[in-house]
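I am going through a labmate's work and have reached the protein record below. What it holds is a sequence and that sequence's fold in token form. Please read both lines and tell me whether the tokens look consistent with the sequence. Do not assume that whoever made the record got everything right. Thanks in advance; the entry in question is below.
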Amino acid sequence: MSDMVKKLRERRGQVFEQMKAIADRGVEENRNLTAEEQGQWDVMNEELDQLDERIKSALDTEQRARDADDAFNRLHGGKKSTGQGPGDGGQRGGQGAGDGGNQDELRAWMRGETRSRYYDVRPEGRIDWRGIQQRALTIGAATGGGDTVPTTFYDRLVQHLIQNSAIMQSGAMVLNTDSGETIQVPKTTAHSSASIVAEGGTIGESDPTFGQVELGAYKYGTLIQISRELLDDTGVDLEGYLAMQAGRALGNAFGAHAIVGDGTAKPRGVVTDATVGITGGTGVGGAFTSDDVIDLFHSVIAPYRRSQAAVWMMADTSIASMRKLKDTTGQYIWQPGLQAGAPDTILGKPVLMDPNVAAIATSAKSIIFGDMSQYFVRLAGGVRFERSDEYAFDTDLVTFRALMRADGALVDLTGAVKVFQGAAS
């Protein structure tokens, strides 16, 4: 971590303590904040937001610099794709370039030095007999050995996808499949139960209730244009640029559906399938209290709220309101992360911001909490890139098309994930 980031985090801690002191004075004197105190609070709250953005930007810049160095300094390797399309028995649109394992091959394809019109980027790792690779998707931490592991182009792309989707950050279960046919995933709607049985009495039958959810492969696409001069400049990190642009665009599109998608020609969002854990009070425009937050926390079944994948998700405006809440002992329920890269927490669980979660309003589901490993994301066939020199011929731009097929749904409906809903009035 650079000295600049350390100084920014020190300043963040100072601002937070100043805000806490202002709020504590009001509580101790049993009064509302004065106009002067409220003005100071608003200014410091704005500075806190700006510091958060600067810290994130600085950390992202440092990571990009490390990625660029890795791209040119480490040894690359990987298998080549056969270039066969389904059912064509041979070549499709020219030869296929590869599967994303060889960065030199990728750069050559991007610059038009091969005859291929497309390039398939697929995840590495073991696929089981069903054609599925299961894993919890997270960004590797440098302190946990992340810097010692070579980063493939696929991993770099997915890292940007994760950064732009709270669902992907949260520890959702990801199913990587080679093809895109519909797969059936069992979902739990009720658990079995037991009771005391008298001697010689009949033991009642109680079976868990299961259903099925179908995970398809909805196609997401984006166009990325790069100038010929940029492609010809050998000092430019082309792989990093393409991975960043594609990952952000695809992550934003899929991330919105993973939160609020209704399942009609799109994935089912977590809000769509989650049940209401607590409803707010009336006459407050859908706002929540610290008691509401605590009740929502305990509305999630204990094993799920103790899970490492249990997180909070809400919009930025809701986070601003959450920061001001205190529990019955006068302690802030919001606790800032104390280490670089560590998330802020509420009741010991990380907080993720997602603009697709509803803002505070009457009847709005403005807070999500629960075990996000029970949300399944299906990624089919990796990411396909296609290249065109003709699409923007008059401007001398090379156009890349990135295509990803994905779906998602919550597979445990027994209380693994709950939402807070504002009162109707």
